[in-house]
Automatic annotation (TrEMBL):
Signal peptide: none
Pfam family, one: MFS_1
Domain Major facilitator superfamily (MFS) profile: 16-401
Main location: membrane
Keyword Isomerase: no
Organism: Pseudoalteromonas aurantia 208
The name this protein goes by in its record: Major facilitator superfamily (MFS) profile domain-containing protein
Length: 414
């Protein structure tokens, strides 16, 4: 991707596109300023056990994923902006509640609602980016930038939170609420100059049950979802089971090693994503996914073979793993965008959110393997899963797609 071409693409980004991109960055950064300290607060103030905290967060996460699947279809039928407004309003009120409520049940309800804004925001915001940008190359760049900015926000948010002294103080959740208020103002300003969605169009689009019928018959898309879910499951082992494995083995200087692994992961993604995009600019999406999946499988083999107390070896393993993440994640979004018909963008992005169940199930299933076997066995299993995911991508690429199931309408939500 040439520098002049990138500049011309950025100049074609509308103000609404920049609101979607920068809004995601600020919301994610302020979210991670305080969210990592939630477990600390639940333990110190409410005396919840590790199991109780994990159960609360897991149930909230699974509900959020299922909600995103349903609301994606609502955004196609009734308009992107309505779901975006719902997202920011829920975010404002839930994080204000987290900052001020005192009783345990109210705090738990606030936690539950605080996981909803991301589910409500994700599909319609990606679909709106696609609506605003007519060229495939512009859409691809915007989705790559979205993933990049989300990662930057996730990386600097906790660091800024520590620097600012937000180490588990309940009132600090107000900062995330303020970021949502700012995003609400930006949406109101942008929406004023945007074409108003014609509610009558909603009747020409499939309702949720009809959308499920379309989805069930779209074999290619379902194959891609299955592969993506497996890929997410493997990636999630690096965030959960790897740390458990190292902790159980009583690795020397564990805290230093874990910190180094987090820094390496974030740094590789931030520094390498766009150089890799430039390197692969002439590759098909499928070829990029094969490359990223192959690197992922290699990283799992390396983890299986690395001695548990070999400090530098784990850093190299995570470096390779992070290169795969830099290739895979943003291209997965681009792949979904290209598979989705114009009038069902939110529905398809919402369905793609189901792949996050791979993240939700990873700690449980990975922990079971660690309990009954060992770390090397776990990484042998994830190597096999990575290879299976690559095979499913290949089957999806070779499977003919019945385009008549998707319709040819160019209707757009506003």
């Amino acid at each position: 991707m040439e520098r002049g071409n990138v500049l011309s693409q950025l100049l074609r980004f509308t103000p609404l596109v920049w609101v979607m991109l920068l809004g995601n960055f600020f919301v994610r950064a302020t979210y991670y300023m305080v969210w990592p300290f939630l477990s600390v607060l639940l333990y110190q103030k409410y005396n919840l056990s590790a199991t109780e905290v994990g159960l609360l967060l897991s149930i909230s996460a699974v509900f959020s994923v299922l909600l995103g699947f349903y609301t994606g279809n609502l955004a196609d039928r009734y308009g992107r902006f309505k779901l975006l407004y719902a997202s920011v309003l829920v975010g404002i009120f839930s994080f204000i509640a987290l900052a001020f409520v005192e009783s345990l049940w109210a705090f738990c309800m606030a936690v539950f609602f605080a996981t909803m804004p991301r589910a409500l925001w994700d599909a319609p915001s990606k679909a709106l980016l696609s609506d605003e940008l007519k060229e495939d190359g512009d859409r691809e760049l915007a989705l790559h930038m979205l993933y990049f900015l989300v990662n930057v926000g996730a990386a600097i948010g906790p660091l800024y939170g520590l620097w600012a002294g937000l180490n588990g103080e309940q009132f600090s959740f107000i900062y995330t609420a303020v970021s949502y208020i700012g995003l609400l103002v930006a949406l109101l300003v942008m929406h004023r100059g945007h074409s108003v969605y014609n509610a009558g169009v909603a009747t020409t689009l499939p309702n949720f049950s009809s959308w499920l019928g379309i989805l069930k018959k779209d074999t290619v898309f379902l194959l891609v979802l299955a592969a993506n879910l497996l890929i997410y499951f493997v990636f999630a082992q690096g965030d959960s089971s790897l740390i458990q494995y190292l902790a159980r083995a009583e690795v020397p200087e564990l805290a230093t090693l874990v910190s180094m692994l987090i820094v390496v992961n974030s740094s590789v993604i931030v520094l390498c994503q766009f150089p890799l995009l430039h390197l692969m600019r002439h590759w098909s999406i499928q070829k990029r996914l094969y490359c990223g999946g192959g690197i992922l499988a290699l990283s799992q083999v390396m983890m299986a073979l690395n001695p548990v107390d070999y400090f530098s070896g784990w850093i190299v393993c995570v470096l390779v793993w992070s290169l795969s993440e830099a290739v895979m994640f943003s291209n997965i979004n681009v792949h979904i965008d290209r598979l989705a018909p114009e009038h069902l963008k939110s529905s398809y992005f919402g369905a793609a959110g189901l792949c996050s169940l791979g993240f939700a199930l990873a700690p449980l299933l990975g922990g079971i393997v660690l309990d009954i076997a060992s770390g090397p066995v776990l990484f042998i299993v994830t190597t096999a899963i990575s290879v299976v995911a690559l095979m499913i991508y290949r089957v999806a690429e070779r499977t003919p797609r019945d385009e008549t199931l998707l319709g040819v309408s160019n209707l757009r939500s506003g």
